[in-house]
Amino acid sequence: MAGYSKKIRPPVSYTNALKTRQVAEYGYKDTDPAHYEEDHLIPLSLGGSPKSVMNLWPEPRYKAGGATAMDKDVVEFKLYKAVCAGTIDLAPAQQAIARDWRTALAKVGL
User: What are the residue boundaries of the structural domains of the chain, listed by start?
Assistant: First the structure.
């Protein structure tokens, strides 16, 4: 997974500029770009579009509603492993994480 996503991941120059613009567009009170990770709504490991602004958003790195960017990474990896193992199909995994990553595992029965 790591090697694959590094090959298709958009350049930092692109994501940093997009993150700065989106933080302002979303109206976040905290405007420090360092406090956000430009994250993929549907992760690259689940076939998410690498550069689409529809699939990228500034995710807070700090606790927001009790969850962090690292917590989402754990969910992404569990979904990726389940899809690769054939435990769940790709489309339901994509839909579940796009709808709400905090409930995605329960939505697909993991």
Answer: 2-107
The full 3-state SS of 5-38, as one line of letters, equals HHHHCCCHHHHHHHHHHHHHHHCCCCCCHHHEEE
Q: Output the CA torsion sign for 21, 23, 28, 32.
A: negative
Instruction: Encode pLDDT of 16-55 as tens digits.
Output: 999 999 999 999 999 999 999 999 999 999 999 999 999 9
Q: Give whole-number Cα distances, 87 to 82, 99, 102, 107, in Å.
A: 5, 20, 19, 13
* DSSP run (H or E) holding 85: helix 69-85
Residue 99 to residues 1, 27, 34, 85, 93: CA-CA distances in angstroms? 23, 21, 25, 22, 10
Question: Model-level pTM?
Answer: 0.84
What was the pLDDT predicted at 64? 59
CB atoms within 10 A of CB 50: 15
